[in-house]
Specification:
There is one protein chain. This protein is mostly beta strands and about 50 residues long. Helices cover about 0% and strands about 55% of the residues. Strand 1 and strand 2 form a beta hairpin. The mean pLDDT is about 95.
Length: about 50
Amino acid sequence: MSVEMYSLIGQKVISKTNLVNSKLDISNLNRGIYILKVNATDGSLTKKIIVE
């Protein structure tokens, strides 16, 4: 499984691969809205994430 996180202007801010039951550290991100994309073998998921 891989995870990518993008700012609203399309800049990739996080990219992690080979994740299994892992936590994603977003403590270094500025406040704002981000797009989270999770890719797995059986499909993908995209969600809006708000960092406060």
